[in-house]
Design goal:
globular, two-stranded antiparallel sheet, mainly alpha, 28 helices, two-stranded antiparallel ribbon
Length: 646
């Protein structure tokens, strides 16, 4: 961030040539630092994922730059507090006194001389985005671009003038007397030059301005050229060439281009572009092969989906912004100098295509497979994972395969999995998978209800296999552990929060645990499986000790226990078997007392009282008393009253 702030504020000069023969400039230094930061930030996530999990979910904060800065500050504060004074004294010879940076009034701090960047703060000082005004201005513009369409640019505005100069640079050879592109508010004579451009004219058209000023104008430039292309004033090939010239001029502009295109794709207001090989590149040469291989990969994990083939002979289509983005990315060279471009454009293209209806992903995959044949296997595997974002039935089948592979509870399914590689296929080993992250990692929020259900259903399948109760209980623990692992790995704390606040209450109220005429042992196994699953999910997401997540954990646990209280007081009626519900409540509270006692101290006293009263009605006084004792000092009077009431 300091490198971006400093070098992005400097007007470019003549590039310097290194001993290796490589040219280095202010723009190049800024672009490398800026694009690396964006890769760490993972800003390429589609905008709709910022609110994917609904209210209360922390996904938006986890995708924000502020969240990364908070993690960085907390980590350094923790590390600094644990550093001994002796080690500090030993390193004093390598340190010098420097004032803190960027105009902040922080006290003087010691930082290493080696690798020191002028104007930067101590590594032990907290860093906030407000300390970087130029970066903050771009970041606010980036978020505004996601939130709504571009507006407010008026003629004479400095950003408007820079945008016009960029358009002149990008399309100096295509206009030749005619106006093709204009920014909002521009006159018909100011958008493009009519000169074919000599080398001198070409250099004079380049706006040698600080990188931050150029980045601020890029979204308006991209909006202008995409609008011109949509209305037929600019050919698709000219659009791609112009954008590529812009990226060559300032590589960091790729970030603004990606930000604009991904946001516009999710809005769905642009007409589709025909990938016919004339206007836009065509995937026809290998599209059917890509789709056939995707089905083969899915079959290896026990997942069978309807035909993925594009119907008829109609050419494939993509939303116009996505077509422009993929056309731009396939023009990048595959050399080391372009790695930082691929590191930003590649994930953005993948996630954007995955968020669009089928067959957007196979089309993008086919185009890239044509360009880079050695990436063919990875491209196919990534494309197969996107099926699970769009097809709930595929998620259900994949989860069944995961549980069957772990428990060996379905001979027919296991035999099919064995043919295709067994558990290894689920983890991404086997068929062309040396670069694949595994199909099991393609799970999303779509499969959470099924994970909960599969954990409970495992109890029925295991008991129906004539296993002893002890063996069945061990298998149930294995199934619930698998379910918790899948949920936490694929969704993190956001999905666990949804599990406690929405999924579990809905699951019990709707009667998803109900089975006709089942034995009590089976109901007990099911209830215990869900309880063990829930406790493990919470422990993985928030921990069992006091931590920075304790406050958030307390809110969610209180919410879930209040749901239990409502059911115990018969204010609401659960739809599952009573034995299942009873075992779940007793199992959850017992495991919370023995495995996560710190959770109890965060529960409201009144909630603990009501839970103890409900447990006494169920003739579980020992568990009720243990629950009150876990409440600590604040619950001592409630525990005494409970004992005296007998």
């Amino acid at each position: 961030m300091p490198i971006c702030e400093i070098f992005g504020s400097i007007s470019p000069t003549v590039p310097q040539t290194l001993n290796s023969g490589e040219d280095i400039s202010v723009y190049m230094v800024f672009s490398c630092a800026f694009l690396l930061l964006l890769r760490l930030w993972k800003f390429y996530r589609p905008p709709h994922e910022h609110c994917l999990l609904g209210k209360g979910a922390p996904v938006a904060s986890e995708l924000a730059l502020e969240y990364l800065l908070l993690l960085r500050n907390n980590h350094l504060a923790s590390s600094f507090n644990t550093t001994s004074e002796n080690s500090t004294k030993e390193n004093d010879q390598y340190l010098v006194e420097r004032p803190s940076v960027l105009g902040s009034n922080l006290p003087e701090a010691k930082i290493p001389v080696k690798g020191q960047i002028p104007g930067t703060s101590s590594p032990t000082q907290p860093v906030f985005i407000d300390s970087f005004p130029k970066f903050k201005a771009w970041y606010c513009q980036h978020k505004a671009c996601i939130a709504s369409t571009l507006s407010g640019l008026v003629r004479g505005n400095p950003v408007h003038q820079i945008a016009d100069r960029l358009l002149n640079m990008m399309y100096r050879k295509t206009s030749k007397g005619g106006t093709l592109v204009s920014t909002p508010g521009a006159s018909t004579s100011s958008s493009l030059t009519s000169s074919s451009g000599s080398i001198g004219e070409e250099a004079s058209l380049r706006p040698l301005l600080p990188a931050w000023d150029i980045l601020g104008a890029v979204p308006f430039v991209v909006d202008a050229v995409l609008t011109a292309c949509a209305h037929g004033r600019l050919l698709p090939r000219e659009l791609t060439t112009g954008l590529r010239d812009l990226v060559d001029f300032l590589p960091a502009s790729l970030a603004a281009i990606v930000s604009y295109f991904t946001a516009e794709v999710t809005r769905g207001v642009w007409k589709p572009a025909s990938m016919n090989g004339t206007d836009w590149p065509s995937p026809a040469a290998n599209l059917q092969n890509i789709e056939a291989e995707i089905k083969e990969v899915l079959a290896a994990t026990g997942v069978h989906v309807p035909s993925l083939m594009v119907g008829g002979n109609a050419p494939a289509t993509l939303p116009l912004p996505l077509a422009a983005l993929v056309s731009l990315t396939i023009t990048f060279k595959l050399d080391k100098a372009s790695e930082f471009l691929h590191g930003v454009a590649g994930p953005a293209l993948e996630s954007t295509a995955a968020g669009r209806p089928w067959p957007s992903t196979p089309i993008v995959a086919a185009l890239w497979a044509q360009k880079v044949r050695r990436w063919h296997d990875y491209i196919v595997f990534f494309s197969s994972r996107t099926v699970f974002k769009q097809d709930k039935h595929a998620v259900v089948q994949l989860l069944r395969s995961c549980f069957a592979a772990a428990l060996g509870s379905s001979n027919s399914l296991m035999s099919k999995l064995t043919v295709h590689g067994g558990v290894g296929a689920l983890l991404g080993h086997g068929f062309r998978s040396h670069l694949a992250p595994g199909a099991a990692r393609g799970l999303s929020t779509m499969g959470m209800n099924e994970q909960c259900g599969q954990t409970g259903k495992s109890a029925y399948r295991l008991k129906s296999c004539q296993l002893s109760l002890a063996t069945a209980m061990a298998k149930v623990k294995q199934a619930s552990t698998l379910g918790a692992s899948l949920l936490c790995v694929t969704g993190g704390s956001g999905l666990v929060q949804m599990l406690y606040q929405e999924t579990l209450p809905t699951w019990f109220l709707s009667g998803n645990g109900t089975k006709p005429r089942i034995g009590s042992n089976l109901s007990i196994l099911e209830g215990y499986a869900i309880a063990h699953f829930s406790i493990l999910c919470g422990a993985c997401a928030w921990g069992i000790n006091n931590s920075s997540l304790s406050k958030k954990r307390a809110q969610i646990i209180n919410y879930h226990l209040e749901f239990m209280v409502s059911a115990l007081q018969e204010k609401i009626s659960v739809g599952c078997e009573h034995a299942t519900w009873r075992t779940y409540v007793l199992g959850f509270l017992s495991m919370m007392i023995t495995c996560a006692p710190n959770w109890i101290s965060d529960v409201n006293l009144e909630t603990l009282r009501k839970l103890a009263t409900g447990l006494r009605r169920w003739r579980e006084p020992e568990l009720a008393l243990a629950l009150l004792e876990g409440g600590g000092r604040t619950a001592m009077s409630a525990a005494a009253e409970f004992v005296m009431s007998f």
